[in-house]
Amino acid sequence: MRRSKREGAEKSEYKIILVDDDQGIIDSLSSVLHRQGYITTCITNPLEAIKLLREDHFDLMVLDFLMSPIHGDQVVEEIRKFDNELYILLLTGHKDLAPPLDTIKKLDIQGYCEKSDRFDQFILLVESGIKSISQMRTIKKFSEGLNSILQAVPSIYQLQPIGDILEQILRELLPLLDSTSAFILVDNYAGLSDDPDKSIFKGIGKYHKDVESFVDYLGHEMIEKIGSARVNKTEITTDDGLIVPLVNEYSNSMGVIYVETGQGEIDDGLNLLKIYCSQAASSINNAFLHSLVNEKNDELSRTYDMLRGRYMDTIEALRLVVDAKDIYTRGHSDRVSYYAMKLGEYMGLDKKVVETLRIGGLFHDVGKIGTSDDILAKSGKLTAPEYELIKQHPTKGAHILSALSMFQDIVPIVKYHHEYLDGTGYPDGLKGDQLNLETRIISVVDAFDAMMSDRQYRQKLGLDVARQQLTLNSGTQFDENVVKNFLAMTESFDEFYENLREYEQASLNKMLHS
Q1: Angle 324-319-368 (CA atoms, 0-180°, nearest 5)?
Q2: Are the beta carbons of 32 and 119 closer than 8 angstroms?
Q3: What is the pTM of this model?
Q4: In angstroms, rounded to a whole number, what is the distance separating the alpha carbons of residues 248 and 25?
Q5: Residue 112 φ then ψ, to 5°
Q6: Rounded to whole angstroms, how far apart are CA atoms 107 and 119?
Q7: All domains of the chain, ordered by start, with CATH?
Q8: pLDDT tier at 1 (50, 70, 90 boundaries)?
Q9: Among 32, 49, 58, 44, which Cα is nearest to 115's?
């Protein structure tokens, strides 16, 4: 499953048996394979070889064709009566003395090689055989794992707690990657609870933690990668493991499974792992369907509430770190949040939308947590590469907030608040109706506060210039109706600004006590 640095040790995991009635050939082949890191068992009597193979397991057999008292094809015929998995490489002194091709196919002999003083071809055939055996081991592992998941499905109907089902899925997964630690973050897509955005966590091994300890354990880079795996529905490799999205049969990204794999690359088994996780997603979806209907939901709700609260604290802490990184933008997210919330109320929007605007404003720049302090604090003009790095912050922020479904309404705001109405913004060049109203509102108030603030590279522009710029870019960069309402709301800006000061002071007190 993994290519590790212990290549020699891995080769020794494969058992090879050499069968030839010529002791000299046996000694030569054994010496060659030993130099390649393999351990071999040598037999000169083919009948003894058959007996040994009945009693012990071997992965690969190198077998001479012309032997006494029976030939190699007869040996294979006997072996295939009790072992269909043994990889067999047939040797012969001359190609004219080899068995017919039909016989080789019938007996499922996987390789054929002529004896020679040069062992290059022989080594290549053995290496190819070991690779095939490794792949078959992987397939067998995943086949057994998938069967275990399928067998676990009936237990869902026995009303097991959802946490037990998630733990069972993780335990079936661990052997596939020779791992000891994993966790699941998963949403309720069954739609049967009072809050369809509920997410829960389950971990085993080093991740067997309570919710608060688990969230504290995650850094912002890990959170961003979890969100990216979910949004893009693709696996992501970390330094120590693999994040695989859980995508059910309806193409919904329900969450992620993280499996710690240690050092090494994930190779051909990855596709099988994705199949496994797809099956797991279906099993989890079924688990919600039955668990949420037939069980007490209070424990699940308590777990979710803890996870939601702790994760919200973590994102808030990241936001405050971003503010603290740059004295020129300190308080910016609080002001954007305040402007957006008040503008939503002024426009008569629903309370839920107003709350979305408040939180969206607070977290719209959280992706800057991954941006270098040197770039954020640079007083001169940014270079093209530096500007490209800055332009990544909306996507990074969206990924951080996508780790849990609780922020699903906030993610578009964070990702697209630098898009322009005419399609010339970033990161995706969206335009017009592709941008929802909340994003258009944040875009306006974000630009307004930037113009009203001192920055490293310029002094604040002042109220009149800021209002003129909003009007000038209305219909191209900004939504005309949003700009019109914002300008009307802030007509008496001094009074409006006084209320903002109270809001900022409350936020500052919170930061000082965090």
Answers
A1: 80
A2: yes
A3: 0.61
A4: 56
A5: -140, 135
A6: 25
A7: 2-132 (3.40.50.2300), 157-296 (3.30.450.40), 326-512 (1.10.3210.10)
A8: very low
A9: 32
